[in-house]
Each structure stands twice: as C-alpha cells, then as structure tokens.
C-alpha cells in the first residue's frame, strides 16, 4: 500500500476525502490528515508518504509554499493539488513544481479514482526499479559496512575510499549504528524469524535511503544516515522499528551509538551501541537506548546513593519473605522484593548476579515451606518459577515475575484461621519455632511498630514475645530429649544456635539441665 497524507484547513474536506472512496482497493492507504502546512511538514517526517493531497490556499503557509519546502527535502513524493475555480491560475503555478495534477473542489469521485489509478502505476514502476537496483546496491552497502565492523576491518578503514562511498550512495554527513536484539518471552525464536524482520526493516529504510541494514551475529543493525537530534526523533525511530515486530511474545532491545562524521569511524558508534545493548536488562523497556538519554530502572542511577550499595543478606531476606508469605501479607512481599532489587542494582551487580541472587532467595523460601502439608504445597509452583528467572530480559519484568510466583505462594499457604494478627503470630511461632524469629522481623512483616506489637502480643497472651517463644521451644525440646536426641542436636532443632544459651534457658523454665532431664 502506498501512503497518502491529506492536507486541508477545512475538517469536512479532510474527512470527506478520507471516506470518499475505497483507498485500499486502489493500492493506497490514508495514513493521516493535516490541518495546515506546518502540521503537514511534521507528519511527512513521521509517515514519509508517497502521495500528498494539498489544498492550494491555507492560512499561514500556503499549499504552494508547502510544496516548495517538500521538494527541497524530497523530490520523490507525488503531489495532487486541491483548488477551487477561483484559484485555478494560482494552481497552474504550482504545476511548475513537478506536481501530478489538480482536483477541483468539490472533488469528483471518478476524477480522483482516475488520478489514483495513474499514480499507482507510476509508483509501482518506480518501486520495481528501486528493488532491482536496490538489491545490488544494498549488497554493496552492507559489504562496505561489514568491512569496517569486522575484526579485520578495523585494520583497513582507510581502504574504504570516497569513490566507493559515492558509488554506494553513502557519502553522508553523519553515521550512527543502531543494534536490535529480539528475545522470545516464553519460547525461543523460530529459525528464520529474525531474517524476516530484517528484510521488513531493510525494505522500509533502504527504499527511502535512510539507513543501511545489516546482520551481525543475532542482532539486526542499522547504519543511520540522519542524526537523531531530538527525543521526538528517537522515540519515532523506536516506534517505527517496533511496528515491524507485531508479535506480542517478543521483547525488543534496541540501542544506538553516538553519531560520527566519518564512515571510517562507524566502529566506534557500533561498539557503543553493542555495550548499551549488552546492558539492556538494566534499562526500561519501550525505548531506544542511548547513552545520553535512556532511562535506567529505579535504583540503577548511581552506586553511591545514600549508602545503599551494600546488598542485604539473602538468608535474612528469605526468612522475611517466608514469614510474609506465611501470614499472607502480599504488600510486604512486594516491598521486600523491590527493596532487595534496588540494593542489587545500586551495588553494580551484573545481570547474572541479580538473577542468581533472586533464584537463590526463591529457592531458600521454597525450602522453608512445609513439605508434608497439603494446604501449603507451593514448592512446585516456586520450582517452576525459578527456571523462568533466568529467561527474563529486563529487570522490571524479572521483579514482577518474582513477585508473581511469591504471591502465588501466599495464596496457597494462607493459614485459614482468624484474621487477627496476634493469632497469626502465635500460629507462626508454633510452626516455625526453629527459625530465627525476632519481634522486629515480624513487626516489619505485619507492618507494625515493634514496641506496639510487643505490647499487643503481651495483652493477648499474657507473656512477652521472647518469653512465649522460649516456652514453646523448651516444650519442643523436652519432647525431643525424651525421644533420645543429644543435647546439641535438640538445641539446634528448636532454634538455639548456642548450646550454652540453650542450657541456661532450659534450666530457667524446667528447673534442671537438659542432660539431667534426658536421663529421667
């Protein structure tokens, strides 16, 4: 389909022309409309249409002035003029600017169709010529680019002469390299898919002489002719690239190196793009990554912000996550995952380190889950999620994935008793007395001030938290001693890392040493 832009200051005419005929049956599609000359110039840069339909008289910039500016920038676009009877002489002047004809208002449907049939034939012939010539020229251009970017090419930059560049139509004022990497979200990429996308991009960019498209390993490369001078241009380029990849199961990573003024220096732009692409995991999605403007994920800006570079202990985080899962607090799960991620990013951890750290934490949480309970069988769900951790291509997606699999554990492990927090704490103590339980940790999990939670706990149980925990542990210890376990084994099994400390606690609550009790 050949693209059409309609420009007229009257909304009824713009929309009337858009709906007057079946454009697609004639080989055209109306990509947009413009209300004035300035609006048209902006939209021409965005859509790069093959045909303009322009009102000859408009406030501000006239149609004649618009055509003159367009011809200065692009000799290939075809132009049909709209005019009233009173503007006929004026329209004839515009015909000298290499326009393809004029339409009198109100536009006659049959006359417009006749014009479009002729223009379609012209555009089709030109397209075929470009394809025949372009396939040869594209090969020559890609060969020149590869000669500089290849490992041996760096030694022979000077061999690419101005004559060769001129013959290939590549004597440009600016050169910058864009690299595009495709990733399957759930499955690998089918063989040949990248080549199909590469051909789509090459057809669009090569036809307009905007870039040389090439393949390097598994990445699609573009050597851009025009410098990206504004955020708007950067965004439009990314959106244009993304439009060639409609598959929703594909993630796109695209990075652009700085512009250079000499073809022999394009390797410098390529290496910068390659470095940015290798770190695309740390950048937000939906953007063309450029060193000066790309947005990093939160927490990645600096490794020295507010003294948060040190990464917390993974075992401590796993314990907190387990407690949060156990009491069904998804808000705390999300907060803990986000906080850990920020600290990892600020510490300068590599992509592999971030993934392996989270995989280790999830595994540790899984190992803490009760193995014999039918009510809390989230181990299989967590195991399935661990493998997927290593397939995530962006940090924000990874964080959401971690949260999703832990949230699933919350749902499967929710204790079904009363909703009162103290009863949940009591239940947790009786099931996890062997863990490193601290009031401060549980206060964080339950979103309470630790002092307030301690008072609340005592008002319900009649005991301080640590006293209640000690009593539960000692009762469990008595059972284990009666079963014949050794003292040091019992101490470890009920949550006391120090045997001497266990001795003192046991004597305090039982009145005898563990050894004496065991002999009874």
Question: How would you portray this structure in words?
Answer:
The protein has helices at 11-20, 37-47, 63-73, 88-95, 109-149, 162-167, 193-207, 231-243, 266-278, 314-326, 330-346, 351-368, 379-389, 395-413, 421-431, 439-446, 450-461, 465-482, 487-493, 499-510, 514-519, and strands spanning 2-7, 28-34, 51-55, 78-83, 102-104, 176-184, 211-216, 219-224, 250-256, 288-290. Strand 4, helix 4 and strand 5 form a beta-alpha-beta unit. The strands form 2 sheets. It has a 5-stranded parallel beta sheet, sandwiched between helices. Strands 7-8-6-9-10 form a 5-stranded mixed beta sheet, with helices on both faces. It is 54% helix and 11% strand. It is elongated and about 120 Å long. By secondary structure, it is of the alpha/beta class. 31% of the residues are buried.
**What share of the residues does DSSP label as strand, in percent?**
5-15%
Low-confidence stretches: 151-158, 301-309, 372-378, 415-419
Name the helicity range. Answer: 40-55%
What's the main sheet like? Answer: 5 strands, parallel
State Rg. Answer: 35 Å
Quickly name the level 1 CATH class of the largest domain.
Alpha Beta
Work out the count of structural domains.
4
């Amino acid at each position: 389909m050949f693209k059409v832009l309609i420009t007229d200051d009257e909304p009824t005419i713009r929309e009337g022309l858009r709906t007057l005929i079946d454009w697609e049956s004639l080989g055209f599609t109306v990509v947009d409309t413009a209300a004035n000359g300035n609006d048209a110039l902006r939209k021409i840069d965005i859509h790069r249409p093959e045909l303009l339909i322009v009102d000859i008289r408009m406030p501000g910039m006239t149609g004649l002035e618009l055509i003159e500016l367009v011809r200065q920038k692009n000799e290939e676009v075809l132009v049909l003029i709209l005019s009233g009877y009173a503007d006929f002489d004026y329209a004839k002047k515009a015909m000298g600017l290499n326009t393809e004809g004029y339409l009198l208002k109100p536009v006659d449907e049959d006359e417009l169709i006749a014009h479009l049939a002729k223009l379609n034939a012209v555009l089709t012939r030109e397209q075929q010529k470009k394809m025949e010539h372009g396939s040869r020229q594209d090969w020559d251009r890609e060969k020149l680019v590869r000669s500089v970017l290849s490992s041996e090419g760096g030694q022979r930059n000077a061999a690419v002469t101005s004559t060769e560049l001129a013959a290939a139509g590549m004597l440009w004022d600016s050169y910058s390299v864009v690299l595009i990497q495709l990733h399957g979200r759930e499955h690998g990429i089918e063989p040949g898919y990248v080549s199909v996308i590469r051909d789509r991009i090459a057809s669009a960019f090569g036809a307009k002489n905007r870039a040389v498209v090439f393949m390097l390993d598994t990445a699609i490369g573009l050597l851009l002719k025009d410098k990206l001078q504004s955020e708007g241009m950067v965004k439009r380029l990314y959106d244009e690239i993304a439009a060639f990849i409609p598959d929703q199961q594909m993630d796109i990573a695209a990075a652009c190196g700085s512009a250079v003024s000499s073809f022999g220096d394009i390797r410098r732009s390529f290496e910068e793009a390659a470095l940015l692409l290798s770190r695309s995991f740390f950048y937000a999605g939906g953007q063309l990554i450029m060193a000066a403007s790309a947005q990093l994920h939160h927490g990645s800006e600096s490794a020295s912000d507010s003294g948060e570079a040190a990464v917390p202990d993974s075992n401590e985080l796993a314990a907190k996550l387990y407690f949060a899962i156990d009491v069904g607090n998804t808000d705390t799960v999300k907060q803990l995952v986000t906080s850990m991620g920020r600290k990892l990013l600020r510490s300068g951890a590599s992509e592999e380190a971030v993934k392996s750290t989270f995989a280790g934490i999830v595994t540790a949480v899984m190992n803490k889950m009760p193995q014999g309970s039918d009510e809390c069988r989230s181990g299989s769900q967590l195991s399935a999620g661990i493998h997927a951790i290593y397939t995530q291509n962006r940090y924000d997606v990874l964080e959401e994935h971690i949260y999703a699999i832990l949230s699933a554990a919350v749902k499967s492990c929710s204790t079904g008793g009363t909703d009162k927090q103290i009863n949940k704490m009591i239940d947790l103590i009786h099931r996890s007395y062997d863990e490193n339980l601290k009031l401060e940790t549980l206060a964080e999990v339950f979103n309470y001030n630790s002092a307030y939670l301690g008072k609340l706990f005592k008002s319900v149980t009649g005991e301080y938290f640590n006293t209640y925990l000690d009593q539960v542990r000692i009762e469990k210890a008595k059972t284990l001693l009666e079963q014949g376990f050794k003292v040091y084994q019992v101490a470890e099994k009920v949550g006391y890392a120090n045997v001497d400390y266990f001795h003192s606690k046991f004597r305090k609550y039982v009145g005898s040493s563990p050894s004496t009790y065991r002999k009874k």
